[in-house]
Amino acid sequence: MKQVLNKELVKKAMEDLKASGKKVTLVALHAALGNRGSMTTLVQLKAELESANQPANDSEEGLKTFRDVWALAREEGRKHQEAVITDLQSDLKTLVLENERLEGSATAAANQVEEFKHVILDSEAALADAKSLLAKNQEALIQAGKETKTAMEKVAAEQTAHQSTQQELAKAIQKAHAL
Fold it and tell me: Which residues have CB under 8 Å from 146's CB, separation 6+?
């Protein structure tokens, strides 16, 4: 089983590379360690060792100036962000009001749709009733037409019979006059 990497191993490998005049790169360091450990672990350990070797040459005056400038920059950023936040809050309030208005409109429209559905259903029922009544009336009209035709045929037959009777009557009257 391979030995786990630790800071001491990585530090010794870095020192050996520097001593031999080679540049300390991740690939070279990994090779110097016998290709042990993951590159992620190696990157972390190398970064820790390099940051520990950084000298602290900062002067008190430089640190104070930096802190003052940093505080001013943070304050300026905070002021700028406050204005942005105020604008965003105003926009949010406007959007909330608009959303409430639109929700009300949507609810009213949904209610109107339901009313229209009821009107449509009622209209369809009335139309079906009217169609049914129209069909009954058409049947009654057809039947009345048939009955009228039959009655007209009877009238025509009666008229023909009446004419025959009139002719016989006229002949009988002539005979009676002749006698």
Answer: none
